[in-house]
Amino acid sequence: MTRRALVLCSLVGLAACSREPSQPSDTAGGPAFAIVDASDPGGRPDFGWRPPIGNTLLAGTFDDTRAPTVRICVLNASLDACMGSDVLPPTSVPVVASNYQYDWMVPISPVTHYRIFILAGDPAVILGIADVRTAATSKGLKGNDPNEFVGITDGSILPIKFRITDACDNQNCGDGLIDTNQGGTAYYTENGETKGGITIPPTPGGGVIKVTITPCTGDLPIPNPKFGSCLDVDAEDYNGVGVAFICDAIQAATDAGLNAAEKDKVTLYKKHGTDPVEALPHADDDCPTVITVSSAKGLFRALVHGNWKKAGQQLTGLLAPKPLYARRLDAGAGGEVDGGFSGFQFAEPCVAGVGANDNNQAANAAFSSGDLDGAICRISEATFNGFAVSELRALFPALIITWNSDPSLDVDWTDRLLPYLQLGGGVIYEDPNNVADLTDVVGVGHTSNGGDIGTFAVTAAVPGLTDGINSSFENNHIEFSSWPLAMAPFLSFSSDGGTTNPTVGLYGKFGTGCIVLTGPDQDYHGLRGGPGFEANQYNLVLNELRFVQGLAGNCEVFAGPSINGLARIVAPLSNRPVVRHPQVPPQQKSVRRPTQ
Question: Which stretch of 107-116, 399-408, 572-581 has the lowest confidence by average pLDDT?
Fold first, then answer.
């Protein structure tokens, strides 16, 4: 048998493990067997085998309250996995003379290989393992590699002796083993507090895998509000599914002042190498949020029986009646955990203000005032361009393309905005500088970066969008000359006293996503509590944010063949020439800052 090397220390735990005092087994008493405990570079610093299996000294104080169990299976040496029923199902191990000890009578059997597991906690966590090779006589053990197996003859008693200390109460412990045949959990703890980990379901025929869990180097590279720890999880040689969990996110979200509706939106995100960021699908109630070992039994007893109130009382301030989402490692879409490091962290999806993000930034007040639940993130053109469409949808439920954004902004209709809408995202578009990116869906008759002055009219009552909106706007930047049947106008503008009245407001639905395009720039001019046009434009951006996220009204206009943007309605009211590739230099706008 070629045994897989089990190197278990995380980047943080490595230093801690290297400081653990240890010594090899007494050469006079027997060889240093292949074991997994604190003597290994990466073994748990709170677990050590004692003779005859090992002779590892541990830091910390002996903990006689851990109630460990021992499990022994028949080992398929060629597959390095348990097979059949356990020889010894999980059995309590008593304290004997300041050690835990269970005396196992080795069966007289043709079976020649076994694996010993020591487990503790609820759900049970593997603390250490040892592989055993047996033979009818000592002669049959000749040639046994003492670096791979504990050698013992059939019918003998093997004292399974070990110690568990409180070493993990005062340092980081983040590595472990999971027997995928039965399924299991591995945790990352800091000074005894569980920050998170993974749970892997039973996989018939699976073997023991190494799990390494370490803190991320910083937070996930996303602009969203983040909560709780960011953890890198590496499930080596495992290509199945599992549940990742972060146990301190609920308290962080509470401390940040999120209400119940906002907490419900908080999502576990995954970043694997150079792959796009993923929002992982909900795995309901699969987060085993153990805070300390001593609290685990009562907590999980309550959770198993559905007693959320009791569980919350046991961990007051650390656990809500229902934990934040746990999410599947493989994102629930048939992908596989390929053994590489993946970062996991909870974050709140936020509306993205994209591009220039200048002046009043009215959408900020919509969230900070409580008019809307949720959050807004302001991102640059380069940051927006750097996200794949799938990432944009995962991170941002809606986009505001703001006035005067740099022409480098990539809002190409076919490659960027349409796929985002088809994934269910919402778009509010206000920028004259990048209308050339929209030529596949709308015609533009005129643009003015600095803004045209004139009169406005709400031309259609659109529930949820035009509610409470009047004709008071500061200026106009875009006139639309044509649009698909999937869109409809709701706002017009005239700069010549009513001779021409081009459309300056459109709405529509593509796939499952809603879009509003306007010539007036609400995010720039709107001001909560302001006078005249400022209040009106604030109210419109508030309506738009609700409308494009499906929180008010219905954005669907026409469900016919025009959804691909080919069939057009041509507006007859504009006498402006169509501008396909406008290169308009930035112009100075009047600025009114929000009052504090």
Answer: 572-581
Q: How far apart are CA 584 and CA 576, in angstroms?
A: 16
pTM comes to 0.78
Rounded alpha-carbon distances, angstroms, from residue 125 to 26, 96, 196, 237: 29, 22, 13, 19
How far apart CA 498 and CA 413 sit, in angstroms, is: 32
| Mean pLDDT taken over the chain | 81
Q: Which of 398, 436, 169, 99 is nearest to 265 (CA)?
A: 398
Residue 282 has pLDDT above 90, yes or no: no
Helix (H) or strand (E) holding 457: strand 455-458
CA distances from 392 to 123, 268, 399 (A): 37, 15, 9
Which is nearest to 271 in space by CA: 283, 284, 262, 280? 280
Structure tokens at 445: 């008759």
Q: What is the pLDDT of residue 444?
A: 97
Residue with tokens 């300056």: 504
Q: Say yes or no to pLDDT of 584 above 70.
A: no
Nearest-angstrom CA–CA distance, 568 and 453? 28
8 Å CB contact between 247 and 345: no
Given a contact cutoff of 8 angstroms between Cβ atoms, the answer to whether 205 and 157 are in contact is no
Non-local CB neighbours of 564 within 8 Å, separated by 6+ positions: 484
Q: How far apart are CA 106 and CA 158, in angstroms?
A: 7
Q: Given pLDDT bands bounded at 50, 70 and 90, which one contains residue 348?
A: very high
ω into residue 531 within 30 of 0, thus cis? Answer: no
Residues contacting 67, CB < 8 A, separation 6+: 92, 120
Order of all β-strands in the sheet with 99-105 = 47-49, 157-164, 99-105, 95-96
Instruction: Please list, in sequence order, all residues whose beta carbon lies within 8 angstroms of the beta carbon of residue 78, skipping any fewer than 6 positions away.
Output: 1
Pairing of strands 278-279, 267-272: antiparallel
> Domain 351-570: which topology?
Rossmann fold (3.40.50)
Asked whether residue 320 carries a pLDDT value surpassing 80, the answer given is no
Containing 421, the helix (H) or strand (E) segment is helix 418-422
- Domain range list for the chain: 11-169, 173-347, 351-570
What is the second-level CATH architecture of the domain 173-347? Sandwich (2.60)
Angle at 105 between CA 76 and CA 55, to 5 degrees: 80
